[in-house]
Amino acid sequence: RLLDGKEVDIFLPDFNIGIEFNGNYWHSDIFKSKLYHQQKSLHARQHDIFLYHIFEYEWLMNKSKILNHLSNILHIVTQRIYARKCVVKEIDSNTCSTFLDNNHIQGHDSSKIKLGLYFNNILVMVMTFCKPRFNKNYEWELSRLCTTKGVNVIGGASKLFTYFLNTYTPHNIISYSNFSKNKGIIYSILKFEHSKLSSPNYVWCSGSTILPRYQTQKHKLIAEGYTGASETEIMVERGFYRIYDCGNDVWVWDHKNLQIE
CA–CA distance from 142 to each of 102, 138, 181, 218 (Å)? Predict the structure, then answer.
């Protein structure tokens, strides 16, 4: 009834959120098309339903982080803090990496600017910025944003972002949010504009081995001694199958939007 006959694994009507658990094998491109997961999410949003996709390989590697992320989305938190009671500090690489590895699904990054939000001298939120990795037309990329487990910092993202704007006076910023796990609400609050939805990305899976696409580019595989006409041919020959995600929302901020509440 929800999606014109398409199944939803778990539906939470109070939140209009569906949770999909995608097994590695049955949701690989052996059975699902490249656009399957993305199109299902788009279809759901046409019905005002947000689909949260959990891929099996993510669950096996990051179960606690996914549960924490879901808890935040569902407002299941043990502590609410107001940003006005917090202090912004620039933090060192070790502090930042440890926090991100403990709280962000993607773990740490190599950002140049690392901002921490402290409540009673305890780090509760981190926002990082790097030079754009994929689009050099922008000055900065907002790379990571997350809070510590069980905590909701009301106004925290705005406070960190305002500090960055006032300190580094950027002309423009690009950022990416995982379409399978984010509604993108925070970007609207920070006055980013939605640019596009990217094509789905993929990983290669064989048993417990998961390889992202940047590790399986043909020239890298050839350098490792594998032979074949294409990346796909080589990886299939090695016994891997491909799993497509939902793609990323691309967000852009421009200096014309300087009024951040």
Answer: 19, 11, 17, 30
Model pTM above 0.85: yes
Which stretches of the chain are DSSP H helices? 36-46, 56-73, 93-103, 156-168, 185-189, 218-223, 231-237
If 0-12 CB within 10 Å is exposed, 13-18 middle and 19+ buried, where does residue 124 land? buried
Under 8 Å CB-to-CB from 172, ≥6 apart: which residues? 138, 139, 140, 252, 253, 254, 255
∠ CA 45-142-168, rounded to 5°: 140
Helices and strands, counts by H and E, the chain? 7, 15
The dihedrals phi and psi of 132, each to the nearest 5 degrees, come to -55, 135
C-alpha 209 chain-centroid distance: 21
Q: How far apart are CA 248 and CA 121, in angstroms?
A: 34
pLDDT digits (tens, 9 = 90+) for 50-99: 999 999 999 999 999 999 899 888 988 889 999 999 999 999 999 999 99
Amino acid identity of 218? K
For the chain, give percent helix, strand, coil, nearest 5. Answer: 30, 35, 40
Please tell me the distance from the alpha carbon of residue 149 to that of residue 105, in angstroms, as a whole number: 12
